[in-house]
């Protein structure tokens, strides 16, 4: 008996869900006014979509917040850390085959 698969099913089988090959630092401590970076590496079938969250609220680029994703390296760069930048940061990487999460706790010292 031959198992028939649709092209869509076949396509999904060949896709690799994302995974973190280098996780974010579990905890980041920084002094107020300094910059901090959260950096990780991922693997998985392209295209990969990256989203960043702080305390479950999605983050977007701003003059103080730089987000980049190049060569499977993801980076969140906060340029002038304040008390309101402290919290739980989560990076979610997704593709057609699934998604992966990595979390970092950021502490800002006054």
In terms of topology, how is this protein built?
Blueprint: H1 7-14, E1 19-22, E2 27-31, E3 36-43, E4 49-54, E5 57-58, E6 65-70, E7 73-78, E8 87-95, E9 98-109
Parallel strand pairs: 2-9
Antiparallel strand pairs: 1-3, 3-7, 4-5, 4-8, 6-7, 8-9
Poorly predicted tracts of residues: none
Spatial strand order of the main sheet: 2-9-8-4-5
Largest sheet: 5 strands, mixed
Percentage of residues in strands? over 45%
H/E element sequence: HEEEEEEEEE
Helix content: under 10%
Give a written overview of the molecule.
The chain has one helix at 7-14; strands at 19-22, 27-31, 36-43, 49-54, 57-58, 65-70, 73-78, 87-95, 98-109. It has 110 residues and is mainly β. The chain has one domain (17-109): Immunoglobulins (Immunoglobulin-like), CATH 2.60.40.
What key phrases describe this protein's structure?
110 residues; mainly beta; Immunoglobulin-like; five-stranded mixed β-sheet; four-stranded antiparallel β-sheet; 9 strands
Question: What would a concise description of this structure say?
Answer:
With 110 residues, the chain is mainly beta. It has one helix and nine strands. The termini are far apart.
């Amino acid at each position: 008996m031959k198992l028939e698969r649709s092209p869509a099913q076949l396509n999904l089988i060949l896709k690799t869900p994302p995974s973190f090959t280098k996780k974010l630092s579990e905890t980041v401590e920084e002094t107020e006014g300094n910059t901090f970076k959260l950096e990780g590496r991922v693997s998985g079938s392209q295209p990969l979509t990256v989203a960043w969250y702080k305390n479950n609220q999605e983050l977007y680029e701003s003059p103080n917040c730089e987000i980049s994703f190049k060569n499977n390296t993801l980076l969140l760069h906060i340029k002038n850390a304040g008390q309101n930048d402290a919290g739980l940061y989560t990076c979610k990487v997704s593709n057609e085959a699934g998604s992966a999460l990595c979390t970092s706790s950021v502490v800002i010292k006054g």
